[in-house]
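Design a sequence for this backbone.
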């Protein structure tokens, strides 16, 4: 059973990471060569890649502009620097510049940091703000699966499917739901 849970957890992580990474934007790049500056953008890490991610330094985090904070947070999330991303998402919420997507992003980030209880609390706050936001239900289902609360996971995933069964989020929720053990 433990082996199944580990394998299942890794499969769920791979599915959800793919969904969220499609939305993550690495917004700050520096061209290595100026000819055709956007060539190779889609080939991250490939031999033809002419761009490199430029890490942010602490003084760049001083901005109070919600759009800049959100951009930086998404950049850190995309670079798997979850601690920095979490700080920025929290700052964004503290400034009142966060929407339900920010709650979703912070919840997922906290989960990746191993802070599942906080993740669920943040996700539930986001659901209370906008219960029709499909992605937050997917994330809530994922986090509940990770903590072993399959009843809540099923409920959240079913809600995500109900809100849009034919789009990418609904289909991801259906795959996760289908992968849950019967019960």
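Sequence:
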């Amino acid at each position: 059973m433990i082996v199944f849970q580990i394998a299942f957890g890794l499969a769920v992580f791979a599915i959800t990471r793919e969904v969220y990474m499609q939305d993550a934007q690495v917004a700050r790049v520096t061209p290595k060569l100026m000819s055709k500056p956007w060539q190779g953008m889609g080939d991250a890490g490939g031999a033809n890649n002419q761009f490199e991610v430029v890490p942010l330094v602490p003084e760049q985090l001083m901005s109070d502009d919600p759009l800049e904070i959100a951009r930086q947070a998404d950049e850190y999330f995309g670079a798997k620097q979850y601690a920095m991303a979490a700080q920025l998402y929290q700052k964004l919420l503290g400034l009142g510049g966060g929407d339900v997507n920010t709650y979703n992003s912070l919840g997922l980030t906290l989960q990746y940091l191993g802070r599942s209880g906080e993740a669920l609390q943040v996700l539930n706050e986001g659901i209370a703000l906008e219960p029709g936001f499909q992605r937050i239900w997917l994330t809530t289902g994922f986090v509940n699966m990770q903590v072993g609360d399959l009843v809540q996971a099923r409920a959240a995933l079913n809600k995500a499917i109900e809100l849009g069964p034919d789009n990418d989020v609904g289909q991801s929720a259906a795959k996760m739901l289908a992968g849950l053990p019967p019960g």
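The first strand starts at residue 29 and ends at 31.
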